[in-house]
Amino acid sequence: MDKFDAMQRFVLVAQSGSFTKAAEALGLPKSSISQAIQGLEKSLGTRLLHRSTRSVVLTQDGETYLPQCQALLAELNAMSGQFQRHQDTIRGVLRVDMSSRFASTVVLPNLSDFLTKYPNIQLKISSSDHRVDPVKEGIDCVVRTGELNDSSLVARTLSHYRSINCVSPSYVKKFGIPLTLDDLANHQLIDYSHTLGNLEAQFEYMEQGVVKHHIMPSSLAVNGTDAYLSACLSGLGIAQIPTIGVEDWIAKGQLIHILPQYEAEPMPVSLLYPSRRQPPKRLSVFMSWLEEVVTKIDQTGLRASPSAAP
Q: What are phi and psi of 52, to 5 degrees?
């Protein structure tokens, strides 16, 4: 087996902590991953991984070897990519992670153009709504909405999305429409949280450029963007939803825009990818395409107020 292929398989096992996950990522049988690692260990004359029925952990030599492999493979990708000048020569698997709502409202409706333009790129989109570790899970880039934590990833700001307060007609029949912050004491907020922790639900709003929070009653918390929208459409509470993707629901009367004077802070939408001197060409063209799509939507769709501009 080519040593670079074996190194790639070792890196995926080390990042995911699993032979099975590495095999799934590459679309290969688990036995081929195991054989590649064994061959690599034999050629190096050392053990790289501690294996057990429950976990796979790097040995001390494996911890030393992993960053060297990653650097070498990144350089190899960059060297290959610099000669891919034509669309039909740009090829390879590209793994991207984003929220389910961003995938369904922004990426998938426009994706046929990209796949037609770059037919040799195999795109794998993850949209599970949990925060992934791109390096550990072998993801080439991620799209994140909201403030970013400190990270070793390179970040590009794609846009800022205005969030509006929405309820459904069925909710209004039961609870009415709140007109002031004091009215919120008699309403229900759908709490959106990645962690589903025990913190009190808070209605976010801007006042004279300052972000403020108002504690509200809440009977439901979700950690998925599709579930958040569905809960609002089902009349389960107030949701603070980015305008992108809800314009049609409002136009059809299935959602009602409330409390326009108390909107949440516009949310940054960012594209993040692992730090490299030169990303693979397939990643570069995808990121450029996505920036163009988001810019076009910003210019033609329901757009944030001037304060929401990047």
A: -145, 175
φ, ψ at 104 (rounded to 5°): -75, -25
Summarize pLDDT for 215-236 with one digit per residue, the tens.
Answer: 999 999 998 888 999 999 999 9
Annotate 101-127 with b (16+ C-beta within 10 A) or e (fewer). bbbbbbbeebeeebeeebeebebeebb
The answer to whether 168 and 249 have CB atoms below 8 angstroms apart is no
Alpha carbon distances (Å) from 91 to 8, 135, 272, 304: 17, 21, 21, 36
Query: What are the beta bridge partners of residue 163?
Result: 242
The token duo for 119 is: 């037919």
Count of C-beta atoms within a 10 Å radius of residue 248: 11
Gap between the terminal Cα atoms of the chain: 48
Closest CA to 51 of 1, 6, 13, 22: 13
User: Residue 1: which of 25, 37, 27, 48 has the closest Cα?
Assistant: 37
303-310, Cβ contacts within 8 angstroms, sequence gap of 24 or more: 303/162, 303/243, 304/160, 304/161, 304/162, 304/243, 304/266, 305/162, 307/209, 307/266, 308/160, 308/161, 308/162, 308/266, 309/160, 310/157, 310/159, 310/160, 310/268
- Burial-class residue 304 by CB neighbours within 10 Å (0-12, 13-18, 19+): buried
The reported pTM is 0.65
Residue 110: predicted pLDDT: 93
Q: Nearest 10 degrees: CA dihedral of 77, 96, 40, 34?
A: -150
What's the confidence (pLDDT) of residue 137? 74
Q: Which residues of the chain have pLDDT under 70?
A: 1, 77-88, 128-130, 136, 150-151, 275-278, 300-310
Structure-block tokens of residue 245: 């993707």
